[in-house]
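Weekly modeling sync, notes
Attendees: S.R. (lead), two postdocs, one rotation student

Agenda item 3: backlog of single-chain predictions. S.R. asked that every request posted to the team notebook include the full sequence so nobody has to chase files. The rotation student volunteered to paste the first one in as an example of the format we agreed on. Action items at the bottom.

Example entry:
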Amino acid sequence: MIAFLLKRTLGAVLVLFAVSVLVFLIFFRTPGVDPARQIAGRQADPQTIAQIRADFGLDKPLPEQYVMMMRRLVWDRDLISYSDRGLVLPRGWCESRAGDRLTGRRAALVWLLMSLGGGVLSAVFRGRMLDPLITGLGLAGVSLPVYWLGAVVNLLTQDTFHDSLFQWLPALGYTPLNQDPLKWFEQLLFPWITLAMGMAGLYSRVLRSDLIEADRSDFVRTARAKGLSESRVLWRHSLRTSLIPFISLFGLDFGALMGGAAVLTEEVFALPGVGNLTYHALSRFDLPVLMAVTLYGAFAVVIVNLLVDIGYAVLDPRIRVP
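Predicted structure, as returned to the notebook:
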């Protein structure tokens, strides 16, 4: 197990290094992109541009620029935005923490409970009335665009039924947990549900199919022949095997959402987050902010997938064998 963990960790470090080099080359060596001219402004004279290039180290060799940029981003943490001259990391950290409230542990918990419950119930009651009902709800969740679903949720909760059913719901926005825990929960409740509905539909369908396939396997028939109860067969044998594809999907989607893929949900519900920060940095072509959030997204995806690999090894010991 230790050798397996070391191998996966080394692979994750190498991937992060390769991504950092690629991101640096894309943002700072793309033809037609001159960070010094962007900082100086459109009307700047050549002497000013040359001075800025020297001050920011943009006149140094490419490897030295890369090392300097990574040092300022990771070690010194004093990388400056080109648009407002503010520090990139403090703002990015605040946005990532706020975004984690939406796409992180709480939304993932809702999403996992909905998908696990739907997938297990649909598989257990397959062929009965509950199965097509769960299937239809899942297909509806997958088919509805998140920005449309969020707009409908806002219309119902903030306008149509706000004075009757949703008087307790505050206005759109984000309140930090340490300021008002109740308002924090109320403002994030419907974003959690909206984000979870699209994910849970697909996951429940995948889990249902894998559970039905596992139910026909030899090891499940053997477990039943030994006299084990149906609940024990389901939870200890069928579900454990069926969770491997489920975890694969979860790792990919969760890492992407942590990296800023929930930008539409953040925009609809007026929430800060990495996706929102990326959108505004892209509109201003703020290269340091774009590089920071891109590396943050890559870091999130790599770390989550490393945890997924560990989950594989826990669920199926055969995966640990080289």
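Discussion: group reviewed the output briefly. The radius of gyration is 24 Å.
Action items: rotation student to repeat for the remaining queue; S.R. to check formatting next week.
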